[in-house]
């Protein structure tokens, strides 16, 4: 961990996130976590940040948001020795679902979860790769709360605070943790 001696964990993780300009459309600075996942040491550091954060919080389940939230969320669930629940885009789950629609910058989207994804009172952490406008995370939390879940915290690798999503999430009364941010970048 010599690389970490002079960097914070946040800076170390951030240094392994690639910025792709003008993707998927002109003017967008896409934050690509693929390099972070490809490096085994960096991926382990990332997982450990989340595991250490939640290991003493009596978490019963981890939910991951479609699709990059599945990558980190399932590994964190495994390491915490708890179950994993996928929250998917509409039409992707094969069993009875409940749905939550949310607004995007241009239009709307819907996420779904299986109707039997949890029992009332189960304690959840909800994980995604990044927070942009906050719509997906807020919708996922609403779904789980409708099933009776207690949300311990929402967590993400990256916060894009200039898009306002982290504030939307906090204003909705959802505790939020992010590893790093790209403010002003």
Automatic annotation (TrEMBL):
Keywords attached to this entry: Cytoplasm, Glycosyltransferase, Purine salvage, Transferase
Top-level taxon of the source organism: Bacteria
GO MF annotation list: adenine binding; adenine phosphoribosyltransferase activity; AMP binding
Coiled-coil ranges from the UniProt annotation: none
Record keyword Transferase present: yes
Enzyme class: transferase
Subcellular location(s) of the protein: Cytoplasm
GO cellular component, one term: cytoplasm
EC number from the UniProt entry: 2.4.2.7
Reaction catalyzed: AMP + diphosphate = 5-phospho-alpha-D-ribose 1-diphosphate + adenine
GO BP of this protein: adenine salvage; AMP salvage; purine ribonucleoside salvage
Span of domain Phosphoribosyltransferase: 46-161
Pathway connected to this protein: Purine metabolism; AMP biosynthesis via salvage pathway; AMP from adenine: step 1/1
Pfam family name, one: Pribosyltran
Record bears the keyword Nuclease: no
CDD domains in the cross-refs: PRTases_typeI
NCBIfam families per record: apt, PRK02304.1-3, PRK02304.1-5
Function: Catalyzes a salvage reaction resulting in the formation of AMP, that is energically less costly than de novo synthesis.
Family named by the database record: Belongs to the purine/pyrimidine phosphoribosyltransferase family.
Subunit field text: Homodimer.
Name by which UniProt lists this protein: Adenine phosphoribosyltransferase
Source species: Microvirgula aerodenitrificans
